[in-house]
Amino acid sequence: MSRRRVDPPGSALVRLRTASRRLLWSLLRPHRRALLLAVMLLLAQNLAGMAGPYLIKIGIDQGIPALTGSGRDATVLAVTAGLFALASAIEYAGKRGFMLLYGRIGQSALLDLRQRVFDHFQRLSMSFHERYTSGRMVSRLTSDMDSIAELTDGGLNELVVAALSVVSVAGVLLWLDPPLAAVTMLSFPFLLVLSRWFQLASARAYRRTRETVARLIVHFVESLDGIRAVQAFRREGRNEQIFEGANEDYRRANLTALRSIAILSPGIMLIGNVTLAVVLTYGGYRVLHGQLEIGVLTAFLLYLRRFFDPMQQLSQFYNSLQSATAALEKLADVLGRRPGVPEPPRPVALPRHRARGQLRLDNVQFGYRADQLILPALDLVVPAGQTLALVGTTGGGKTTIARLIARFYDPLDGAVSIDGVDLRHLSERDLRRSIVMVTQENYLFAGTIADNIRFGRPSASLDEIAQAAKAIGAATFIDALPDAYRTRVHRRGGRLSAGQRQLVAFARAFLADPAVLILDEATSSLDIPSERLVQRALRTIMSDRTAVVIAHRLSTVEIADRVLVLDRGRIVEDGRPTDLVAAGGRYADLHRQWLNSLG
What is the pTM of this model? Predict the structure, then answer.
């Protein structure tokens, strides 16, 4: 008996961190040469910066005695000052070059990442989009991207420089005077304990901030997307309470992160100042007893300041690093999700111009949950050019069949094919060129009327757009608009009526010229005059192609060649509309109820 594997606690987080590191490397891989040059500039900057205190030591221990002696030789001091100026110039040039080069690398990586996330969101299946809210998508492309951008815009530069300075200064201190370095090392256990505590505390805090800001954006976006329902049901007060709660959670998460910083940064400063005082006391004692040159002590103190100051910078920028790391994990999680309807590795080609449009469903089983089948075992053949209407009670499987034909989902068992080719073997391009679905939502995008009609065929000319609109009866109202086809539509086509939006959607489908057209409740939101206007367009758009129509209004069904009556995923009646009415079965009952509703 097989057992389902249970991952140990934390394994999902480990996988996510591994995925985020792989994602980061994939973004940086194309810039390897530029990164190598950036590292060289960074090393030059660091070496030049390290030379400064040592040159001061030489100036104090050798230059000043030479200048104050009987010979009064200023050569050593002049050379030291010149070398110090040269080191400062190299440090400036290295830092400037690194920042410019790294900035270009960071922006290129962000450009690539944004494009990847957007492209991946578009290719993920409908099942993903039904679970993953639009607000969370917006959060991935805005808040998470901003966190990474904040790091690449300069934070990481300071972070790397500070880390490199700490390592190189530690080495110089050991070389300069081992006894003083040994005294300095007494502070290391305190620094390690403080840093480890901060690493654990801040990691939790910044994951919390990413989660809370995502919830905040989700509620904001969804409230505005559904503003009509919000205002219709006087939901404003309740939504404000929910937003207030999410906003408060975000504030608390940020305060938790800030408290960690408030402990780390002053803690490092305190340890550094105490260490500096101890070194100054011990070093001064050795200078007084002739065991140490004053220039060495001066250089050591300067290097020591360069050791603790970067550590404070590390604490200041570590919050940006943690925030960016949490954001990268979220993005890696999205990019790691595989499409539920993947592109075939070796697609089968359909005829280049246009498929014939024969549809076949062979023993199709499907359910949105594997334990709750909506279609237990469906067999169906739709000849090319036939208009098929699907009717039945809610939950009967009508929309599910349409979604399977459009390959928004794949069947759990069996196959859906067009012209004998399994949809799973078709390329995305051939599939979308051959099958188009029009729903009751009639979604219009920001832009002009022409832009929305050519949506499925971007290369169409204005004349072709006008011909498509004229063919389905939309030209009359479009020509009456202020700028005709160049009229800009408001959000979701708000300045057009429901019937006009539907006609634009039909013109879009007509111009795309698919072999199979699916109409899912395409007239359900229309009033009677608008429906009659759209009916004429329906006859035009469904001619010379296979059409699958889902409609509760039987006025749309009457123009079909064939009707299927569905009940719990099974076909209970199949025939011409007139024949089914004469047979006196379920369709006849539906037809009689429809006639009575017309009054």
Answer: 0.64
